[in-house]
Amino acid sequence: MDDTSMATATKPWRRKLSFATLDDVVRDTENLQGQGYEKVGNWDLAQVCLHLADWMGFPLDGFPKPPLPIRFMLWGLRNTIGKKMFHKYLAEGMPAGKPTMPQTLHQPGTDSTKAIAKLKEAAERFKAYTGPIHPSPLFGAMDKDEATRLQLVHCALHLSFLIPKT
């Protein structure tokens, strides 16, 4: 048995998701809360929502400054393969298991109603925003449409680990 077969034999595998709008993302989180869900990853619904809300703010407000060694690594990636990675992620989705900024990690057991409300607020703000998009430390400059598409792919990655109960 390969790794995929073993994973599916013991617990459900991730959902295949693709969102067209940030409203679709919010609706999915509300449905998960209403129906209940099984967690097949490490984060619960509130952790996912808060993480996504954090990341929706960065293109609008600026990205946190990582430690110096990480900044050098990001600079190197951004100036070599960053755009190629960006286009691959938009086309194929983001891969799981990549590191994230520690300030976007949240404790389990947070109130999911409040977390969904925060995500909805972040999505509304992102949609209404008309200012310049701050360049990604990894992918570089992008316009609002590209930033939105990246948000949708990021949301699909994290929400794919939450399986609605039927």
* Secondary-structure element string: HHEHHHHHE
Q: Radius of gyration, Cα only, in angstroms?
A: 16 Å
Q: How many DSSP-defined strands?
A: 2
Approximately how much helix is present in the residues? 55-70%
Within the largest sheet, what's the order of strands? 1-2
**Average predicted confidence as pLDDT:** 93
Strand content: under 5%
Q: How is the biggest beta sheet arranged?
A: 2 strands, antiparallel
What is the multimeric organization of the chains shown?
single chain
Instruction: Tell me the distance between the termini.
Output: 28 Å
Q: Quick one: overall form?
A: globular
Uncertain parts: 1-9
What count of helical segments does DSSP give? 7
- Label the structural class: mainly alpha
Give a short overview.
Helix content is 57%, strand content 4%. With 166 residues, the protein is mostly helical. Helix 3 runs antiparallel to helix 7 (144-159).
Write up this protein.
With 166 residues, this protein is mainly alpha-helical. Helix content is 57%, strand content 4%. It has helices spanning 3-10, 22-35, 45-61, 68-78, 82-92, 112-128, 144-159; strands at residues 37-39, 162-164. The chain has a two-stranded antiparallel ribbon. The longest helix is centred in the N-terminal third of the chain and has 17 residues, at 45-61. 24% of the residues are buried. Mean pLDDT is 93; it is low at 1-9.
